[in-house]
Amino acid sequence: MVRRVAENFEQQKKVHSAIIKIVAGMSLVMILPAVLIIGVIVSNGKPLEVGKKAPEFGLLDQNNNYVKNSDYKGDWCLIYFYNGNRPDGLMQARRIKAHYDELHKLHLRLVGISYESVPEHHDFAEQLHLTHDLLSDPEGNVISEYSAHTSMNQMAKNIGYLLDQQGIIKKVYLELEPESQLLAVEKDMRELASL
């Protein structure tokens, strides 16, 4: 009887060990691809470098006006990338609206860029009462040039660039929650614009 209990115990240990190996293997097979996919989506290109001139662009705004980033020379400017009417884009727009007066007092121009069409930007701006420029980049050329593209179709990375009056990148805000990003921008503007 004692020998039989010992054999059962040894067999149970082997079964238990085999189950752990199977579960660990399955977890690896399921988790590893997810981690790789998320890594590609999130870090698809390095942000532009601080101290460099921001790349030139020209896009249509929500009112169908052709806007170039050289139009902002002489002003501090935050160029941010967002995802339109998706939940993260809506939250970001609401936070910008809440901070708009403070950012305006700091003499900061805001420029949002996304894949959405001009009519979609127009409706989005009207719906949320946004008065700053929302630029349409349906082909994603500017989004890619500013390293805001992801491997997911028509999705921009949450990234913002603070430019000085000469169009030089002074700060990069990467993957911050909208509230944290705007608070960081306000803090940086108080420090940098006073120099």
From TrEMBL:
Domain called Thioredoxin: residue spans: 48-191
Catalytic activity field: a hydroperoxide + [thioredoxin]-dithiol = an alcohol + [thioredoxin]-disulfide + H2O
Keyword Nucleotide-binding: no
Keyword Phosphoprotein found: no
Biological process, per Gene Ontology: cell redox homeostasis; cellular response to oxidative stress
EC numbers: 1.11.1.24
A Gene Ontology term for the protein's cellular component: cytoplasm
Keyword annotations of the record: Antioxidant, Disulfide bond, Membrane, Oxidoreductase, Peroxidase, Redox-active center, Transmembrane, Transmembrane helix
Ranges annotated as spanning the membrane: 20-42
Top-rank EC class of the record's enzyme: oxidoreductase
Gene3D superfamilies: Glutaredoxin
GO MF term list: thioredoxin peroxidase activity
Family: Belongs to the peroxiredoxin family. BCP/PrxQ subfamily.
Purpose: Thiol-specific peroxidase that catalyzes the reduction of hydrogen peroxide and organic hydroperoxides to water and alcohols, respectively. Plays a role in cell protection against oxidative stress by detoxifying peroxides and as sensor of hydrogen peroxide-mediated signaling events.
Record-given protein name: thioredoxin-dependent peroxiredoxin
Organism: Mariprofundus micogutta
